[in-house]
Amino acid sequence: MKSKLPSLPYLIWMAVFIVIPVGLVLYFAFTTQDGAFTIENISQVGQYTGVLLRSIWLAAVATVICLLIAYPLAFFLSRTRASVQRTFIMLVMLPMWMNFLLRTYAWMTLLENGGLINKFLGFFGLGPVQMINTSGAVVLGMVYNYLPFMILPLHSIMVKIENTTLEAAQDLGANWFQSFRRVVFPLSLPGVMTGVTMVFVPAISTFIISRMLGGGGNSLIGDIIELQFIGASYNPHMGSAISLVLMVIVLLCMSLFNQFDSSGKEGIYS
Questions:
Q1: What whole-number distance in Å separates Cα of residue 87 and Cα of residue 215?
Q2: Where are the domains of the chain?
Q3: What confidence tens digit (pLDDT) does each residue in 227-255 have?
Q4: Is the pTM of this model over 0.85?
Q5: Which parts of the chain span the membrane according to its record (predicted)?
Q6: Residue 58 near residue 140 (C-beta atoms within 8 A)
Q7: Which of 11, 80, 22, 3 is nearest to 244 (CA)?
Q8: CATH number for the segment(s) 24-34+44-269
């Protein structure tokens, strides 16, 4: 029987940073300030349905845009020389070396009414265009900050697709579109699912981007959760209830993504 001792650090890590936090969320979500059991907190989450739906919608839009940008970029990058791939991967990761907050502040400077973009448009007699404090600005911030999380898993999968595989498809009479539909896309589907999950999950729960680029009229569910834990409206029980509902939604979305991934794998081997 193999020793379980090597897994002990990981088990401790899971207990401290996963099990205990989730347990605290469950405790606060189903209790009152006196510690009595209640489901009132969960029932009151319905009043934020509009904000939740907007969060899901904007996160989904940002995820689709990231996929449309990252997929062709990752594919063509995977077909280049190894030295070129290393250079471009470094360029993709370079913004991630900068603080997340500073990157978002930079977009505020670009998008505000007196920002660089509107000053540039002013040279052509255009603007100022209202870009800051809009849903579009929030989506732009999501795409900019989370695009690398879509590119990297797609590239790691596509680089494993050999050129000989594509050549074999062409030798069998497949044109470019058929090769993509029957070979490239099914083989890259695990990377697509990983990238979608890595972008959608943080996008739906973000609050910094929506606060700084969206203004008060474009609050997301992450902003509502944050407000429950700070200031005069401090209510960890309500904040935990909203967090729990959001957690369930994210898990359902991830389960749905995994179903698509499984279907794609069955299509490959059938």
A1: 37
A2: 24-34+44-269
A3: 999 877 799 999 999 999 999 998 888 88
A4: yes
A5: 12-30, 56-76, 88-108, 120-147, 187-209, 238-257
A6: no
A7: 22
A8: 1.10.3720.10
